[in-house]
Design a protein that fits this description.
There is one protein chain. This protein is an alpha+beta fold. The chain is built from two helices and six strands; from the N terminus they run E-E-H-E-E-E-E-H. The longest helix has 17 residues. It is elongated.
């Protein structure tokens, strides 16, 4: 059975069933892998440690996520298994979001 919850210890995911440790991780600023503001701070690209394993069908735990908030890519993102690929993915989403020009129909423009 795959572990459901993880905490990060020295940047590495560690499975746990300790609810206090999970709650502490959820509220921790250390969950943030990277955060970048673009377009006069109207677009944010955020990459975080999820705590909850999102590999619901088994396989390698999916523990990181990048999301774009604002602009034409609002709500787009990717999930990752490993911290290093999450950081690389963050940089890729920053490039995409920086290149995405707001449109007149974009309510976040």
């Amino acid at each position: 059975m795959k572990e459901r919850y993880y905490i990060e210890v020295d940047g590495k995911p560690v499975p746990t069933e300790d609810q206090e440790a999970v709650n502490a991780m959820i509220g921790s600023p250390h969950r943030t892998v990277a955060k970048t503001l673009l377009h006069d701070d109207t677009v944010e690209v955020s990459t975080v440690f999820l705590v909850l394993n999102h590999a619901f069908d088994g396989g390698t735990p999916v523990l990181y996520e990048t999301l774009v908030f604002g602009g034409p890519l609002d709500g787009d993102g990717t999930r990752y298994c490993f911290r290093d690929e999450a950081f690389e993915g963050h940089q890729e989403w920053v490039r995409k979001a920086a290149d995405a020009k707001p449109t007149e129909e974009d309510p976040n423009a």
